[in-house]
Records
---
Amino acid sequence: MTKHYNIAVLAGDGIGPEVMAEAVKVLTAVADKCGFSVNLNTALVGGAAIDASGEPLPAATLALCKTSDAILFGSVGGPKWTGLAPDQQPERGSLLPLRKTFDLFCNLRPGHIYPEFADLSPLHPRISSKGMNILCVRELTGGIYFGEKGRTSTDAFDTQRYSITEIERIARVAFEAAIKRNNKVTSIDKANVLQTSVLWRETVQRVAQHYPSVTLEHMYIDNAAMQLIRSPQQFDVLLCDNLFGDILSDEIAAIAGSLGLLPSASLNGSGFGLYEPAGGSAPDIAGKGIANPIAQILSAALMLRFSFGQEQAAQLIEQAVQQCLSQRIVTPDIEPNSSYNTVAVGDAVVAAIHNLSVNNMPVPTVGSH
Ligand SMILES: NC(=O)c1ccc[n+]([C@@H]2O[C@H](COP(=O)([O-])OP(=O)(O)OC[C@H]3O[C@@H](n4cnc5c(N)ncnc54)[C@H](O)[C@@H]3O)[C@@H](O)[C@H]2O)c1
Ligand SMILES: CC(C)[C@H](C(=O)O)[C@@H](O)C(=O)O
Ligand SMILES: [Mg+2]
């Protein structure tokens, strides 16, 4: 029987709708090729929803998400809405509540430098030629993002709080992933200053005892930011709290070649997920048709893998993207003189999917990505 998936498509603001259109094209092509069907239901979110209805996360949008098998999310926010009250702004009023509502505590952000296109990285070839294959495992529903906060006219505060339970569950994800990859977890903290980091380090250390085959290393965030540039190939799984993971994942994206390359999966304990590019609405290039659609397309691949178990379809998309990158079919964020725009890159990914043979796909290795 043909499998059928209901997907909530929330394109959002800025480049969101531009890159989402390409991901939808790719999803439709891969579904046809692999013999399943996707039912794509769009809804407004973020600034686009504020403009239409006065609210960043309308009840109808939330209801659609609740009745869907997964959420494909674009990006929200932009200068038009920064003057609104904090809780009414697109990011705090839609994306963070969605993460909290669905308990999407686990955020996976895989970043690569492959040998065939190591020159896309801004790092010196001496470093980039050694490649990079990092899975950033970011805690997504706790920490300073969701702690008590406040401000008066003269001061302001944000609170970082983590419980052992919150740290344990994300640490387990990191160790389980490492087992299927290269057996190394680097846990990022600031335990020389922060109490939450001391608890983080102790807890991760304890969880590690259940994974004797995995090497655990602890690294301070400032050193990690530096080591990523000096030798990114030393890392396998990076385990981060919410804020440190936000920052390091942008760095990983830049090392790979562009923020427009980094996808993400935000998952809860039962496999429900929201899939979105790690980058944002890019107001500086929105409307120009030059945004890189690859992060959005690869986020759709992660959805097929993690929410639907369609590993072959996910790999088909990933291989098609790799072909485009190695043929330098890329937007100007990667190669400034490139004549390929958003639509041309999306078309090239679709064409590569049509040409790839499903039978020649490698044996599925879930978790190794
Ligand atoms: N998931 C999300 O919805 C999300 C994520 C990050 C930022 N934001 C929001 O986006 C808005 C802009 O934030 P910002 O400028 O700090 O970050 P940003 O990620 O939007 O952009 C940073 C830089 O990266 C470039 N960039 C990002 N994605 C790209 C792509 N796909 N192709 C080509 N270039 C790309 C942009 O042009 C810009 O120069 C803010 O409102 C921010 O809160 C939203
Ligand atoms: C838009 C913002 C709230 C979000 C975050 O900080 O988590 C974004 O930067 C990300 O990386 O997903
Ligand atoms: Mg971010």
---
Amino acid sequence: MSEHEVDLVVIGTGPGGEALATGAAKAGLRVVAVDKHLVGGECPYYGCIPTKMMVRGSDVVAEVRRAAEVAGEATIAPAWSVVHRRIDEQATTHWDDTIAVDRLKDAGATVHHGVGRLAGPGRVEVTTADGEVITYATARGVVLNPGTRPAVPPVEGLADTPYWTNRDAVQVAEVPGSLVVVGGGPIGCELAQVFSRFGVRVTIVQHGPRLVPADEPEAAELLEQVFVQEGIRVLTGVELQRASYADGGFTLALDSGEELRADKVLVAAGRTPNLDDLGLETVGLDPHARTLDVDERLRVQDGIWAIGDVTGKGAFTHVSMYQSAVALRDVLDQGGAPARYHAVPHATFTDPEIGGVGMSEQQARDAGLTVRTGSTKLEESSRGFTHGPGGHGVIKVVEDADRGVLVGATAMGPAGGEILGFLAVAVHAEVPVDTLRTMIYAYPTFHRAIESALADLS
Ligand SMILES: Cc1cc2nc3c(=O)[nH]c(=O)nc-3n(C[C@H](O)[C@H](O)[C@H](O)COP(=O)(O)OP(=O)(O)OC[C@H]3O[C@@H](n4cnc5c(N)ncnc54)[C@H](O)[C@@H]3O)c2cc1C
Ligand SMILES: NC(=O)c1ccc[n+]([C@@H]2O[C@H](COP(=O)([O-])OP(=O)(O)OC[C@H]3O[C@@H](n4cnc5c(N)ncnc54)[C@H](O)[C@@H]3O)[C@@H](O)[C@H]2O)c1
């Protein structure tokens, strides 16, 4: 047991924690960064990056299959080994964080692989991978960036089966014959489509009434149509009641009475915050909370900042990074703009992609705004029409009619996440709808459909 004085300890190095520790160390603070697994967190090793390599592969497969309708015969023999190799070698360097650790050390930080826990105000106890316990007393404080882990629904028998989570799904070397995906959120939908396009018989079991419930219903409806056309079985409004595993296969009993059988089951039913083993009780905070309340500078209390998924402001890498920059300025007493969340964007990388920013129509109504909405189908635009197969999509805008500004928008279609950029600026900068209407929209682009959605506002 040893004790040291430093300026700052960062517990958990997700994308935001890694960036903050790097910035603080470069600014001259004595920084300790602790991660119980890999420096960089979920995004580079098990989340955004490997899954987007999977999506890239599955999009190529789909485009080749569309070739006959627009350019001539082409064939592809989808090979998962190619995707697996890219993830293994290029994305994750065999799930090894040496490069990230060295980068952080080069910036001047001390890096531990181990578990960090608060041990009273300003104090952190680190239990390193080899069992050593080191206590740090901090002059500035502690940044918490512990992220989340997959939630496992309380379904009888499920915990005793060898189900996959996203961590297993990104590491598979061979695809199974059949897969049941439990959960129709972003993880479930992205991965269901990927595996389906690589020849897996996929069934999605979603207990809510529709897929991607955080997105607009129009987007969910179109996504379900596309999935069904591609051969994915989508079961909504059903509850999984029992799960078992025997002789290399899963059996899943649904409340509808149906029994599903599959080679593999992927649980993508939400996330559990890593707040339960962080020593929160030693500083008067609730270790059973789902989120940590933060102010506009990401402070939880004097000398404690929290960033990333555990703040409940949007479980996205870009939110973690944004908060990291705001919190770092606060740690360094540099002031600057406080955090605002009125224009949080997201892109779900299904095909078609779903880009969303700000409020959904329902959220705007629940907030008591005078709401007007406008929408248009992408395939009815010139670009959607000329694009042909794969050109389906929808643009929807949500206006606060009293202020004449957009408070939310959806761009679904090919490159929906890119078209979203335009709408994110409009919502972020509160550009008057009248100004958006006087712009010239290049013909024939996908983003030109935004003009039609604005014309439809009523
Ligand atoms: C399959 C999947 C796909 C995704 N795709 C996207 C995407 O396309 N775009 C996007 O923006 N977001 C995506 N996300 C979400 C994104 O990964 C997270 O929002 C992002 O990683 C930010 O999380 P975070 O900063 O809160 O921490 P995390 O990345 O979760 O990292 C937290 C770190 O803290 C460590 N830790 C936890 N507790 C302790 C402790 N007590 N001591 C020491 N270390 C600890 C963990 O080991 C981990 O390394 C995806 C997520 C998943 C699962
Ligand atoms: N492209 C992206 O930005 C991206 C991609 C993947 C994940 N993420 C982030 O990661 C977070 C977690 O993703 P997620 O998809 O696991 O979580 P989620 O909470 O967004 O979705 C989980 C889904 O599972 C369903 N569900 C819950 N319990 C169930 C049960 N017992 N049976 C059937 N369905 C059940 C829920 O209704 C929900 O639709 C997302 O909210 C998102 O912020 C982002």
